[in-house]
Design a protein that fits this description.
Keywords: Hydrolase, Metal-binding, Zinc. The protein has about 210 residues and is α/β, with parallel strands linked by helices. It is built from five helices and 14 strands. It has a single domain, classed as 4-Layer Sandwich (Metallo-beta-lactamase, Chain A). The protein is globular.
């Protein structure tokens, strides 16, 4: 399995593409710049099969409808943020004057609990990792030794918890109970900034010391 990191939009939110050798791919958090994302998909001769959202803050969802319609693929999100795609007040786009309100279509499928899921040729584990937002999830691929962690865990940092629905203690618990229990060699694909590993964050992340 290969993965590609595409920082998109003014906040440089990481969109990820995970692909198989046959070109089938999953798209995570297409935040903006749908044309740029589509160009990469075409250049690499990829065939998207689904969009999966780690959560629905505005900087992670801006290109969802464009990509969904272009490739005719479904969108998956946790049920606790089922209304966020259609409500600017919930996804945060309505709180900033410089941000265009994002009010799109509902997701096609809702994730309701932790589970192993299979979409096409991809099998992965869903972990609920709330704290940054109520419906934040992390998606673990044992086959590729990687986890798409959204804005839960960053290289040397953790997600902010001062937005509506955020909870600092809950986020720390999510990280320790769900993410730091993964193998230390697991690559962490974060919503912003460079990739890291579980082992690196266990050893050096200042926000996790003393928890």
């Amino acid at each position: 399995m290969e993965w590609y990191q595409l920082p998109l939009g003014p906040l440089q939110t990481n969109c990820y593409i995970l692909s198989k050798e046959n070109g089938k791919c999953l798209i995570f958090d297409p935040g903006e710049e749908s044309e740029k994302l589509s160009n990469i998909i075409q250049q690499k001769s990829l065939q998207p099969v689904a969009i999966i959202l780690t959560h629905a803050h505005f900087d992670h969802i801006g290109a969802v409808d464009d990509i969904r319609e272009e490739y005719e693929i479904p969108v998956y999100i946790h049920e606790k943020e089922a209304d966020w795609l259609i409500d600017p007040a919930l996804n945060g786009s309505g709180r900033y004057e410089m941000i265009e309100n994002i009010s799109g279509k509902p997701a096609d499928f809702f994730i309701r609990n932790e589970q192993e899921m299979t979409i096409g040729e991809f099998t992965f584990q869903i972990y609920e990792t709330p704290g940054h937002s109520p419906g934040s999830i992390s998606i673990y691929f044992k086959e590729g030794d990687l986890v798409v962690a959204g804005d839960a865990l960053f290289n040397g940092s953790i997600g902010r918890t001062d937005l509506p629905g955020g909870n600092h203690d809950l986020l720390l618990n999510s990280i320790h109970q769900k993410l730091l229990t993964l193998p230390e060699e697991t690559t962490v694909l974060s919503g912003h900034g460079p990739a890291t590993t579980i082992g690196q964050e266990m050893d050096s992340n200042p926000f996790l010391n003393g928890f």
